[in-house]
Amino acid sequence: MNIFNALRISSSGLTAQRIRMNLISSNLANVNTTRTPQGGPYKRQEAVFAACSDPDSFKNMVDIKITGSRSGVEVVDIINDPRPSQTKYDPGHPDADKKGYVKLPNVNLIEEMVNMISATRSYEANVTAVNATKKMALKALEIGR
Amino acid sequence: MDININGLFGEMVSTLGKALDLRSIKHNTIASNITNADTPGYNSFDLVFEDEIQKRTGAKPEVGMRRTDNGHFSAVNGAIDNIEYKIKYKTEKPPMVNLRGDGNTVDIDKEMSKLSENSLMYNASAQILSRKFQSLKSVITGGGG
User: Fold this and answer.
1) Which chain B residues are within 8 Å of A67, Cβ to Cβ?
2) For residues B27 and B45, what is the distance between their CA atoms, to the nearest angstrom?
3) ipTM of the predicted structure?
């Protein structure tokens, strides 16, 4: 049914934005982390979004053919930011090299804050869509009453 | 004997039913656009049917069914029932000034206003349909129920 399809689309958006929010929190929490299991400083992580829809459903495949667009969204990959680590002169730091420089994560606080606002707003937009869907479904149930 | 079923469930019910159908499909496209507001390379798309439905309501059917016996139901509802063949999904034009570098053409403000407009119109259609059935019931019960 169409209404439930709309709910699925919106909830895929909610899931994706929540994953993005988790990664932003992780980046913010590790802004000063110099040790990781892989060695070296923490690398900034980012989610890669791609439009998708249920491949199992025949109707969805037809929809994709007709509209040329896919309906939901999913996180297809989580990448490490390839930008180089920041270096800071801090001879007293236990992870400083011989010249006294410490490699810090390539996390930019301001960038993370901006991304966080963007993720919050996108999440809210999806919540609004879910609420509208719910109200429409309830209204349709009232027809025969 | 000619059973005039159209006096009861005529154009109005079928038009409103079709309108609800199309609104719920349109709701899906809008939800999909909102969900993919952060997906790189996503093209927003839309379902445009308001003009077509206005053209068709009250218009004579282009290809009518012929009644060979007075006992047959008349087929004046043909006009609205085949409307979906004339409705196309269209990819929205990218904005003249696109400040986004990721090739995404979703205008979130436009989508949110479309979302509220569409669900408002859906609710209105559902309410009118509900009133129609209420007044039918009132007629059936002789105004007593």
Assistant:
1) 29, 45, 89
2) 12
3) 0.73
